[in-house]
Amino acid sequence: MIQIGSAQLWVHDQDEALEFYTKRVGMEIRSDVTVPELGNFRWLTVGAPGYDDVAVTLMAIPGPPVMDDQTAKEVRALMAKGFAGTIFLVTDDCRAAYDEMRGRGVEFTEAPEERPYGIDCGFRDPSGNSLRLTEPREITSA
Amino acid sequence: MVFASRDRDLLRAKDLVDSRYFDPLDVTDLARAAGFSRAHFSREFRRTFGESPHSYLLTRRMERAAALLRNTDRSVADICFDVGLQSVGSFTTSFTRTYGASPTAYRAAFPEAAEYARIPTCMLRAFGRPQNRTFREDTDPAHL
Q1: What is the CATH number of domain A6-136?
Q2: I want to staple B31 with a disulfide (CB 3.0 to 4.6 A). Which of A76, A138, B17, B41 is the partner?
Q3: How far apart are the first and last CA of chain A?
Q4: Class at the top of the CATH hierarchy for domain B2-127
Q5: CA A66-B74-A27 angle, 5° bins
Q6: What is the three-class DSSP state of A11?
Q7: pLDDT in tens, A19-47
């Protein structure tokens, strides 16, 4: 059996991202380890409370020799354009989550709307990454 | 039916603890979430779940703090704030009472977080490469 352990998201600033995903989105810290032997590489992951098996890795864009300057620049350009990846979150109450997160300062790009698959809305993290928040519709037989 | 509804309201408060323990919640906030007066709420919560709401909130925070002490290298003060507590002194007292060891002693009983953090091999390979880039390589442009 294969399960998803974590998926990686590039971020401009790990501290800023951590504050956003915990204090504003409502996730919790799973792992936060800085390794001096790896040039102070920081392994930082967050996840939804109660779902310990799945995490999002908040990865700082490295410099050389891990990533050359040109590639780093291209990654930043993709992030700035909003094409560096999306996280799709689910909730059991999209409108309530929207109100709650807006109250905590999350800037939404789309308010909750009815879709064929449920109700969803969208927002961005401080690095420009796109996140969708969906309340899936229960599929019932005709 | 009335009891089912009451239990559902109490469960809402319990869920709030589990999902938002890192916010500065207290029993008054939990009572409000359940729609009860504070005194009535504490009594009903204990009757339904077998412990006081204060105890449930505190033990949830302690359990999360213990996980952060094991899985991160964040400071004890940061972890105190990470789990929604404001006073490092109170945190240390509560933690020591719960686990029989101070946060620092508890952490010391486990391997360092970096030793068993699930940092993938690809990351270790990439970030472990020497950063010294002057190996007196052949700099003749014809050989580059």
Answers
A1: 3.10.180.10
A2: B41
A3: 33
A4: mainly alpha
A5: 85
A6: strand
A7: 999 999 999 999 999 998 888 999 999 99
Tell if the CB–CB gap between A62 and B118 is shorter than 8 Å. Answer: no
Q: Give the mutation candidate from A35, A45, A56 for the B interface (greatest B CB count, under 10 A).
A: A35
CB contact under 8 A, B129 and A62: no
> What are the Cα distances from residue A122, in Å, to A105, A112, A129, B16, B47?
14, 8, 11, 23, 41
Query: By CA distance, what is A7's nearest residue in B?
Result: B120
Interchain pair A39, B18: CB under 8 A:
no
**CA A129, CA B5: separation in Å to the nearest integer?**
40
Task: Write out chain B's pLDDT in tens, 144 residues.
Answer: 455 688 888 999 999 999 899 999 999 999 999 999 999 999 999 999 999 999 999 999 999 999 999 999 999 999 999 999 999 999 999 999 999 999 999 999 999 988 878 888 888 888 888 766 665 666 666 666
The C-alpha atoms of residue B13 and residue B31 are separated, in whole angstroms, by 7
Contact (Cβ atoms closer than 8 angstroms) between residue A41 and residue A35? yes
Q: Residue type at A83?
A: F
Cα(B34)–Cα(A86) distance, integer angstroms: 35
Task: Read off the pLDDT of residues A75-103 as tens digits, 9 standing for 90 and up.
Answer: 999 988 888 889 999 999 999 999 999 99
Q: How far is CA B91 from CA A48, A105, B66, B77, in A?
A: 23, 28, 11, 9
